[in-house]
UniProtKB/TrEMBL annotation:
Pfam families: LRR_8. This is Uncharacterized protein. Belongs to the SHOC2 family. Gene3D superfamilies: Ribonuclease Inhibitor. PROSITE patterns: LRR. The lineage of its organism: Eukaryota, Viridiplantae, Streptophyta, Embryophyta, Tracheophyta.
Length: 505
């Protein structure tokens, strides 16, 4: 599961050195495997032996170690034959399911069974067949998913290898192989002084392995762009609030645990990148950066977003908070009416706020890989009428909301690795248009059924009213007749006797 030293020499070296420091002598296998390639790498990149350079690189590849740990728990990558078998089994199960569904559809309606009752029985049979098929396919889908995770791990290794090489080259070009702390500070101050005298608008200090920034940064009043990415910064000074004209701030790939509250005073800030740090929360004051258009806080340790973040960031168009531990979104997110791109994959989301449908300008939404936490979507998802791309893969969604068919502009949809029953997998496999058509028809059927029930209820109420009125009229009529008969028979008073009837024969 360790990176191949031949394919990923720098990454293998860095992770191997980290293992040598952290693992005791009982891990000879790992150490021997890595040591075989150390000589060539150290000859080509001699400064890799610098402890501070190595520490910086080790921090940078922590996500690889995490991914490797997950995969080690899941098991080795399935071989090609096993993978083919899994695909074949799934196709076989789908074929059997199709035949079962066809039999259900073609089954004649028994005599004496009403249409609605028959449809309900058929729908229940169909549901049971689909659930049984999904249960049968589950172990084979798990094999395919494991292979996909290994593929993703390999891509991660390639990306990290490239990243480490660039980090090394950047530091080498700038002769920044970890001078003493005071030397770093002195050089930075010289840069700041030069920038201050020349009214520089852009300062790039990425890949300098900086551990801290002097307060003097706050004096660069004309600074528009500041790039401090790929360093070792643990703290950003409060004086950053003095950068009154700052529009772009790049702080990715550092060691930041928090951001200063004073960041809320950067009223002209449009782009903020704090990805790949150790942030556990964003300050509430970030909501006051009302000019923000892009905010990237991905790959941190966030468990929540500030409660009021959406009420103020009305100009935000791109929000990336993937690879965190967020369990829920504040309802204020729905007030980000300018939002077009929302990435929430690899979190612990359990649901979306009901008000999510207010994001009518949203074009991209990624909710993938929230795994067992995300089991459904709100009906209001159908109000995202401008949505073009939606990724729901690797969750536990059983049914799409009935309003899903209203997403007319949706062109890309990923529903892989979900126990979907609605829509059925044979519809999903036909593509996004088939899914939209199926869900739209289902929604129409629901509306028609509700209308039918409403009409039946109204008719019943009308008949009940007629019966009450008829009963009242009949009571009055009978009462009148009874009175007349009684009067005729003398119950109301005796009538005079007819003398003719009294005659004796």
């Amino acid at each position: 599961m360790n990176p191949n030293p031949k394919a990923y020499p720098v990454l293998s070296y860095v992770m191997g050195q980290s293992s040598n420091q952290a693992i005791s002598g009982d891990s000879d296998t790992v150490q021997v495997e890595i040591q075989g390639s150390d000589t060539n790498v150290e000859e080509q990149m001699p400064n890799l032996k610098n402890p501070k350079m190595l520490a910086s690189m080790t921090d940078s590849v922590s996500n690889v170690a995490q991914a490797r740990k997950v995969l080690e728990g899941l098991g080795e990558r399935p071989d090609h034959e096993t993978l083919d078998m899994a695909h074949a089994k799934i196709e076989e199960i789908d074929s059997k399911l199709s035949k079962q569904l066809e039999e259900i559809v073609l089954a004649p309606q028994p005599e004496g069974v009403e249409q609605m009752e028959w449809r309900a029985q058929q729908a229940q049979k169909e549901k049971q067949c689909r659930q049984a098929a999904e249960k049968e396919k589950y172990p084979f889908k798990a094999i395919i998913q494991l292979d996909e995770m290994h593929q993703a791990y390999e891509q991660l290794l390639r990306d990290e290898e490239e990243k480490l090489v660039k980090m090394y080259e950047s530091a080498e070009e700038n002769s920044e192989f970890l001078p003493a702390k005071d030397e770093v500070n002195e050089e930075v101050i010289n840069i700041l002084q030069e920038a201050s005298h020349k009214n520089v608008e852009k300062v790039v200090l990425s890949g300098r392995l900086l551990r801290f920034l002097p307060e003097a940064f706050g004096r660069l009043r004309n600074l528009v762009i500041l790039d401090l990415s790929s360093n070792q910064l643990e703290v950003i000074p409060d004086s950053i609030a003095g950068l009154e004209k700052l529009e772009e701030l790049y702080l990715s790939s550092n060691q930041l645990v928090s951001l200063p509250d004073s960041i809320g005073l950067l009223l002209t800030l449009k782009i903020l990148d704090v990805s790949a740090n150790k942030l556990k929360a964003l300050p509430d004051s970030i909501a006051y950066c009302r000019s923000l258009v892009e905010l990237d806080a991905s790959f941190n340790q966030l468990t929540f977003l500030p409660t009021n973040i959406g009420y103020e960031l009305v100009n935000l168009q791109r929000l990336s908070v993937h690879l965190n531990k967020i369990r829920s979104l504040p309802s204020s997110v729905s007030e980000m009416r300018s939002l077009r791109h929302l990435d929430l994959h690899f979190n612990e989301l359990r649901s979306l706020p009901q008000s999510i449908g207010r994001l009518t300008n949203l074009e991209y939404l990624n909710l993938s890989s929230n795994f067992s936490d995300l089991t459904g979507l709100p009906l209001t998802i159908g109000d995202l009428t401008n949505l073009k791309e939606l990724d729901l893969s690797n969750n536990q969604i059983h049914a799409l909301p009935d309003t899903f068919g209203r997403l007319e502009k949706l062109t890309k949809l990923n529903l892989d690795q979900n126990p979907l029953v609605i829509p059925p997998m044979e519809i999903v496999n036909q593509g996004v248009e088939a899914v939209k058509e199926y869900m739209a028809k289902r929604w129409l059927d629901i509306l028609l059924e509700e209308e039918r029930k409403s009409m039946v209820q109204e008719n019943n109420q009308a008949q009940t009213g007629w019966l009450i009125r008829s009963t009242s009229w009949l009571n009055n009529f009978v009462h009148g007749i009874t009175g007349n008969v009684a009067e005729y028979l003398g119950t109301e008073g005796k009538s005079p006797r007819d003398p003719y009837l009294d005659q004796q024969l």
